[in-house]
Amino acid sequence: MCKAQTYGIFFTKNPYFLITQITSEMREAENHRLVGGVLCLDFANTLVGHGAIPKHEYLTDYGDLVLWSRHTHLLAPSEVTFLIREAPRHPSKSLVAFKKALTLRKLIYRIFSAIIQNTHPKQADLDQLNTARLESLQHSSVVQVKQRFSLEWADPTALDRMLWPIAISTTDLLTSKELPYVKQCAGEGCGWLFLDTSRNHLRRWCTMDECGNRAKMRRRYERVRNRTSL
User: Fold this and answer.
1) What gap in Å lies between CA 33 and CA 54, rounded to an integer?
2) 2 near 26, Cβ under 8 Å?
3) Within-domain flag for 80
4) CA Rg value for the chain
5) Residue 123 is part of which domain span?
6) Is the pLDDT of residue 22 over 50?
7) Is-contact 165 153, C-beta < 8 A?
8) β-strand pairing of 182-184 with 193-195
């Protein structure tokens, strides 16, 4: 794991008090493996285990949310610097933005998990996503750069600005022809979501070097145990 000087923001026991510090250790939010293939799926994958008892959390506070957004190029360096400076000045707003991010993450996971399991997402979840989509669009405008067009996000001072493109990414994927290829890792205890872009669309694991290899080792162990028990 590489090390680099970075800004870290974390909550103390009082969640309304933020501390900004410089540390030589990269936080896990900066090392999160982006295997989803789509922004919204990578965001859902910042939690391992979406059940009652999560197994691993990559976003422990607002600072992690900012660092993850830099890791995924959602935020420009100048925006990261601004948010890191502003967050301690507005701790209650930072906490609201962080809780909003976690709510959006749960929403994304619920919707795509339902689709993967061949069930319909709850209408309440779709209504909630539509609300997030409309809010995001209110902060965006279409701009032309040479011969191409793109969405430009307004209000660089908003503490929750990184959530706007994530919401749009979710609706774009839901309405795309690629939706049938959204899958869930078959690895035991994993459950990460990913877009299967393999040639035959037979991908089963988030990554072969982790969940795929662990599954191979378990199968090998079972074969050896079965032979020795004969």
Assistant:
1) 18
2) yes
3) yes
4) 20
5) 6-228
6) no
7) yes
8) antiparallel
